[in-house]
Amino acid sequence: MIKDPPVLTIRRNFPRPAAADIAAFAGVPTGYVIDALGGRGALDYRIKPLAPVKSVLVGVAVTCDCGPADNLALFGALEVAKAGDVLVAATDGFTATALVGDLFMGMARNRGIKGLVTDGLARDLPGILGVGLPIYCAGITPNSPARNGPGTVGLPVVLGGVTVESGDIIVGDLDGVVVVRQNQAAAVIEKLAEVRAAEAALEAKVKGGLEVPDFIKAVLASGRVAEIG
What we know:
Oligomer: single chain
CATH superfamily: Ribonuclease E inhibitor RraA/RraA-like
Shape: elongated
CATH class: Alpha Beta
Number of domains: 1
Helix content: 25-40%
Number of helices: 7
């Protein structure tokens, strides 16, 4: 006979990135971060801001695995999280009930949380807009969850096709959410300088009237393109 699992399994003491590493992503568009990561690292395209955001969300991930139709682990993550953190909640992509509503987001704001990322749904949109914290989720439904568990807090989760660990850096904007693994942060920050310079140079050329970039012209003139008409 299998024993019932604990209602919550919590890991509180996970490594955190240096404050300077977090600050290095302030205001950086997700597209830049993805380019610095080599082209991948964003959550599934369906995980988008519930309402238009005016600034880039940056913070340390505090993960929780809620499972379907339950948010006990999310409350556990709220208790574990520190000011400036981002709650990252996996629901197995469950879409029959909401994970979170306005009252929870009000508590998160009171605790200094920067935002919430989930592959589940939200509810109470007018109230959430009043709270003002960003939620990145898969949609909205008025259906409500239970708080029974089991769930985990602080352990790795998978949502939107990406593995997220507590201590990873979350970056979100209107395009979506990017996860920077804690052990990648230094390399990504170093690469960002190159990405910024390349973007600025090409943007200046576009504003100056550029129609076809040189790298495309080089491909077309390389002998590797077959003209058939």
